Structures are given as structure tokens and as C-alpha cells.
Amino acid sequence: MFIARQPIFNAQLEVYGYELLFRLNSQSTQFGGVSSQGATAMVITGLFESGLENLIEDKIAFINFDEIFIHSEAVELIKPDRMIVEMLENIEVSNNLMARLTDIKAMGYSIALDDFAQTLKSYPLTPLADIIKYDIMVTPLDRIAADVPAGLAQGKTLLAEKVETQEEFVKAKAMGFTLFQGYFFSKPRIAGRSFRATPSQIQYLQLMTEINADEPSFDRLAQLIEQDVTLTYRLLRLASFRAGSELISSIKFALSYIGLREFERWISILMIHDLSKDKPAELIKLSLIRTRFAESLAKRAGMIELEADAALMGLFSVLDAILDQPMAVVLAGITLPQAILDALIEAEGHLYPIYELILTYEKGDWGQVESNARALNIEEYYIYHDYREAINWARNVIGNIA
Hints:
Blueprint: E1 2-10, E2 15-23, H1 36-50, H2 52-56, E3 60-65, E4 83-87, H3 95-106, E5 110-113, E6 131-135, H4 147-153, E7 157-161, H5 166-175, E8 179-181, H6 199-211, H7 218-226, H8 229-243, H9 251-258, H10 260-275, H11 281-300, H12 307-316, H13 319-323, H14 327-331, H15 338-346, H16 352-363, H17 366-376, H18 380-401
Parallel strand pairs: 2-3, 3-4, 4-5, 5-6, 6-7, 7-8
Antiparallel strand pairs: 1-2, 1-8
Helix pairs in contact: 6-7, 6-10, 7-9, 8-9, 10-12, 11-12, 11-18, 12-15, 16-17
């Protein structure tokens, strides 16, 4: 079973909830070769086995239903304050469906209409809906400009889906949309300005360059760390935690105790975290999920010698969005293995299939996920397992560095 999540933001770019995208197996499209009732049981069971809170944390889940799926009693296993019932766009409206949705609303569930392309006044499910979702690639914002005020007048919450650019987000927000779904938050906002690194950024870049030198110098690393009292404190605290009762007497000793590769990961995470202070919190979370996910996939694919590079590739995959510069410009200032540069800039090379698998998994493009998994010789079972573990790992890391 594949399950992925896509963040849904409010107007302040805070995560309101996650839409859960799922497929049962490689032969299925959405619900597979079983009845929708059977799919319901399998999906809900899977969510409970893995822990719904592990996927959506303290947010609310948007889960797709069709006209058969909605009649399953398994729906009620998830509490109304943790789930929004999302009705698929091609649903067949019937009296039974209307009655079921009325009962569900009476239980406290909210209802969303997915990929809405109907007429608000005449569509039978509109009065029951709390949220109207517009796929702005299918129904562009200009085309629905007249429908938006009508939806707002009826008290509906409007959600813009497939928002891919900052400009689309700003436009939808100005029109009256209050929820937004898409990967616009992970794209750079390039305004034609040249890239000028801050002192903090320069320090991180110097550290990364030294780490990836042919012969890294612990003396040089220690000198760079000593320039920042906060960084020094963080390093000594990390080393002391690892050492237990053993005394950590110097920065050089802390570095040797932690090890170069572990220090590289740690300093890279700190860099991403510190540089993304004015960005949506979901961006740093996405970066951390990707670094762990990429590392796990490289291991599954037998790329043992590339695990560390895969992890760094995943972590740095949002640097362009954090610094609002093209990826080639951002990475030009850092000495990195060629495999990472090839994947993130040229979309090629040994690591690119792993990066592509991550991107397609996030979007729920299951056919491409299956194709990439076959190419990498990774069993499908492990992909969801590693994705779920990456989410948990990212949450713990954020808790330790926030």
C-alpha cells in the first residue's frame, strides 16, 4: 500500500491539514481490484496500524471517498475532528448518497467537494459541502472569478488546489480563497536580484566546503565553528549528549567524537533550519523528510556508497526555495559531490532516480513511483515504510533543534 500526504495551507502559510493520497498496490489505480468497501477497510486499517497521527501529526486529514466508499462504517473509525470527508469529482449523486452525507454531517464531519467544476446553484451536493476545492489547472482562476463570490456568499470555504507558483497563491488569496494546496511553497521566488550571501550563510558554506574537501582539516573546521558562539554551544551539547559521562574538552575533540559524516549531516540540518526562518515551517519539514527518505531509498537500492550523498541531496533539494535563487546559483557556492549536483541541477546521474521517486511519491503519481521503484529494484512495501519513518524522524529532529 502507498500512502503519501500533501500539505494544505491557510492564508498565513501554516499547515491546516494534509490530504492523504493512497493506492493499495501496483495493480490498482485508486481503490484497486477490490470493492470500495474493501478498499476502505484496508486504507483505514493501514492508517490505524501506522498511526494516523504519525502521518498527519496534530493536523486534520483530508481523505477521498466515492459513492460506495462513503457508505462503509469504517469511515466513523476516524473522529470528526481529525478528518474531512472529501467527495471525488466524478461521484454519482443519488438519494442514498445525499442521506448518508446528511447523517455524516450530523455526526460532526465536514465535507469537501474535490476538483469542483459544477454549477454552485444547481449541484445537489453544494448545500452539504463545507469546503469547495478548485483544481486551478483544470478550472483556472480567471474562469471561476464569477463563482468565487457566490461560494463565499454561501459561507463556503474555498480551497485552491494545484497551486504551483507564488503568483497563483497571491492571486487566489486576493480572490477570497483561504486554503491552498500545491508545491508553490517549495519553489523559489526569484525577483531578478543577484545572490549575496549573509555572514551566517558564508560561514555555513565555508564549513560545507571544508567538509567536502579532499582532505578535510579538523583544525580549520574548529576555527570556523569558534567564530559563532551559538554554533559552538550546539556542537558541544550534541557531543556531550553522545558521550554521556565522558568529558568533551574541545571543539576538535567534539568533532572527532561525532565523526565527519555525522557532523556534515548535523551542520547541514542546522544550516537549512537557520536559513529558513522566514519561510513556511513546512519547508524545513519537507527538507528533513526528503533527507531521511533519500538515505533509506539509497540503502534499499543497494547504493551503500551513496547513502550520505543521497541524504544531502534530499536535504538540499529545497535550498533554492529557501534562498529564492536558482538551484545552480545556490549550489555554486558549495563544494559538493558531483552526483548531488547532477541530480538537483541537471536532473540526471546516479542519484536522480531516487530524487524522482521522492518527488513522484509526494505527488501521488503512483505509476511513476512504481516505474522508479522497479528501476531501483526496491520492493514497494518498503517505500511506504521508509516514508512513514522519515516523517517521524523529521518531527523528532525539529523538536530537538527548534
